[in-house]
Structure formats: C-alpha cells, structure tokens
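Teaching note: in complex prediction, the entire set of molecules is handled at once rather than each chain in isolation. The prompt given to students was simply: 'Predict the structure of this complex.' The entities are:
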Amino acid sequence: MTPDWIAVDWGTSNLRAWAMGPEGILAQAMSDDGMGRLSPDRFEQALLSVIAPWLGSAVMPVIACGMVGSRQGWHEAPYRAVPCPPLDRAGMVRVPVNDPRIAVYIAPGLKQVQPADVMRGEETQIAGALALHPGFDGVMCLPGTHSKWAQISAGEVVSFQTYLTGELFALLSEHSVLRHGMAGTGWDDAAFDAGLSAALSRPDRIGAQLFTLRAEGLLAGLSPDSARARLSGLLIGVELAAAKPYWLGQAVTLIGAEALCRSYARALAAQGVEARTLPATECTLAGLASLARTLETAR
Amino acid sequence: MTPDWIAVDWGTSNLRAWAMGPEGILAQAMSDDGMGRLSPDRFEQALLSVIAPWLGSAVMPVIACGMVGSRQGWHEAPYRAVPCPPLDRAGMVRVPVNDPRIAVYIAPGLKQVQPADVMRGEETQIAGALALHPGFDGVMCLPGTHSKWAQISAGEVVSFQTYLTGELFALLSEHSVLRHGMAGTGWDDAAFDAGLSAALSRPDRIGAQLFTLRAEGLLAGLSPDSARARLSGLLIGVELAAAKPYWLGQAVTLIGAEALCRSYARALAAQGVEARTLPATECTLAGLASLARTLETAR
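The expected output is the structure of the full assembly:
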C-alpha cells in the first residue's frame, strides 16, 4: 500500500497522520510526539517513526497543519493576515529534510491585527468545511481548548476571536479548589443549563459564580456531576456572552469533538440559534486535501 | 522564654506559629507542613516540631485558625452560620492530643447558606480587624487566593462572597497558554489600569480579553510585565464588577498582603472608593488574641 500523499495534524500534544489514496483514507497512525515535547531537530524522526511504513520509492508529499508550524515548532510558517482565504498554495512552507523519500509542507496559521488574535490548525478545518460546503457564508465556531469564532464570507475568513474556555475548564476542574467537588465523569444537563443561563443573563457576575460550586458542594450536597456540568455551562455561557456579535441572528456551523459540539449546540439552541455540526477530523482532512490538490496541479 | 499562649495560622500550604507574651510576639516559626500535605494523625507532630522550643512545664494554650479545622484537616471545627460575630468562645473546638504539655483549640470558619459560601481563616482576620477598630461598620475585603468580601455591622459578619481571583491569576499566568508571554516578575501600572478598566466597563467581554494577551505578545510585542499586569487588572476588574454591591458608595477596609492590597486600593480608587489597608498577620494575631482572652477569662 503506497498512498498518494500523507496528511498530518500536528498539535502541541500529539501527532496524527493519515495515508491518503484516491478514495480517501487508506490508513492512520498517531503518536504523542506533540510539538510541545520536541526540539526542532527531533521533528523529522518523530514524523518518520509514524509514517515510515507508508513510504515507497517515489517522493511522498506530506502536508501538515497545526502548532508544528509555530516559532517553537519544526519550522516557522508565518501567519497570514485576515481577511484572506483560510488556506492557499502560496502560503505553504516547504521544510528542509534529510530523508529523500519525503517532501514536507506546513500550512500556516492566520493572524488578525486588531483585536490581536491568532490560530494554527483551525484555518485548515475552516478550509475543509468550505471545501465540503462550497459557497458557505456565515459563522463557524470551533469549540476546544481555545475556542475560535470566525466570520466567513466569499471564501475568506473576515474576522475571528479566540476564547480560553476549554483551557479554563480543564484548569478549574482539575487544578483549582473546585476540583474537590468535581471527581468523576458523569453529567447533568439541568445543571449545565442553569450555569449557562446564569452566565448569559449576568456575565458580569461570573467572578461570584465559581466559588459557589465549591461552597454548594460543602454545604448543600451539590453532586460532582452537577458541579462539573454547571462549571461547563458557566464558562460556555461567558464565552457566548462575549461572542454574541458572532452568533446573534446567525446560523452557526460547529466544528469539533462530538460531545463538546453537542454542548455548544444545546447552548445556542437555548438562545434560539440553530447550529449544524461538522466532525473536526473530516474538516482537517478536507482542508489538507485541498492543499494536496494544489500541489498536484503545480507539479 | 515561656510564652502565655501560642497563636497558629494553619493553612493549606503552610503552618505559621507565634509565641505570644503579655506585650505581644516573643518569637515566631513556620514550616511547610500545610494541612494539604498531612494525614490527620500527623498534625500533632507537625505542630510540636514547630512549637516545642516554646513549651514549659505548664499546659500551653495553642489557638489555631485556618484549614486545619476543615473536614480534611486535623479535627473538624464546624462552620458557624452568618449573621454572627466572626469568632466566639463557644464555637472553639478542643482537639484531643497525646502530648500533655499542650491544649489545642481550633477556631471554626463561617458559612452562608444562600448564596452558598464558606471561609476558614478570614473570620479570624475580620475578628482581629474589629478588635483593632472597635465599632467598625462597613465592608472588609480580604484579597488573596480566594478573595473575600464581607459586610460587617454591629460586630457581626452579615454576609460575604468569595472570588477565585488569586487562584485564577496563578493558574492562568503559570499554567495556561498565557504563561508563555508572562515570564519574570516586573510590573506595569498602566497595563494594570487598562485591564481593570476594560473588565469593569465590559465584564461580559472577559472571555474575549484573555487570549488577546497571548496574541498581542506574538503579534504586537506586548511585554511580559505588561501582559501579567493587564491579566491582574482584568481579573480584579471582573471581581470588582461582581462585588459592586459590596463597595459602591462604601469605605472599604482591605486586609491582606501589602502589594496585593495596593493593587486593590488602586483599582478601588479608580472607582472613587477610598480604601484603608490593615496588615493580614496583625489582624490574624489580634483575632486569635481575642480568643486567648476569652480562654483566660474562662479559667
């Protein structure tokens, strides 16, 4: 089995690769050699250890997106400034490698000067969503560690904004005093809704809502499932409060992990906003494939 | 040197003890045997290893406050419900010990049923502030890992509210993606003021303000000192936005670490609120001393 090209999503904490043929995915592999744990001279070996079984005698195009292209990554792929199409051929950076069997390209991220913002990886998902739904005009939301909201028009990212929601949830639920009342993995939709509604109606009071989760655990028997779900509702609510200019009166396309997108869709539905969800990996691959096609055309 | 009694402030991360004589502090000592790292059977030895040099032939009263009295601590001192005086003789819990040279008492914390809230340790500082300023009526703010705002009237804590501000600052500046742009220990008053003003005027937009610190570091050369000071301003601003019912039109007494109280005083002054600062340790000792006097009276 020799693929036409190899797709790579290389983030801070892991590396995922797909062997791509004319009909789509032939094989996939991953490792925890994320950009965050590699020095620049170790990226090529980390990549080869995952994709070596797919290499043949011809030079294999490898197209990567994500934090691998940051200044602290393998090789910097300088941000492109919005408004611009999420990906384009000219922005791709060819990485010098030692192994003659691979030709590695990194897709650059996007930057916005005012208000200052950056993304790396999400631009590829946005490009993929556009490839899957040509002519899309509207708002995309990519929930995650750093949630992104993007305004898309005429094939370009017009503006975007990042929220620390996922990272705040992880820090508060695993590393703050609130963790004591949040063990386990269960869920409570009603508690999520209550947190969401409290944060959306009075986002200015978020500072007072967090410790209450701990105090209700101590004094009123708030269950760990309810506490965790309400924290999620509070944080997504504060994000939605700030992102209102993006979603108010709009149809929203969500791109991300299934469970998280379900929470966002539920939150948006409570505000009368309909959301459609696209799977993140499918979008990533469609975005990288659009770059692969431009390479073929250029050959 | 044999003191009359020993004061102990025993929090989650350390233990501080003072040998107290008729004129005040005779000696002090501390260890990092905080409540967070001790199982119940190790508290007595942890205490003795700090205070043993001060013990004589008579039984020594030891009066402790803080997390040592929590359910996970040495011996639970059940919360007293507000409204009530911050400390009183009847609430003190005598801890069973093996060493006949010590008589250990723990001061209980306070709870508020609705909105649910708790404190342990701060009630002693409030009692101390009242002892230092008898007849005080108004608002006390105790900035810290978990900032507390308390309404005091007629010698009682009427209501209080806790904010995770200090813990959020530590998590975001040391453990989130923002840490990359916040190394060092310098400061920037103008950046603090800018963050404060942004958060106070639009607290609903806090979700969008945090990642901007990282993006401005990458794109606009925001310095680590400015980024850290602006984060502090943003978080204190969000706290002040939610705590407005406490401070609006009030004189505020701050109790806490000097530099942090200066930041809060600066923030309050920008809102036209005058704040007086009392040193935290002095208040803790005055609060514990008020309990020591009730013990003497009872003997």
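Point out the following to students. Chain A has two domains: 5-120, 162-279. The longest strand of chain A covers residues 24-31.
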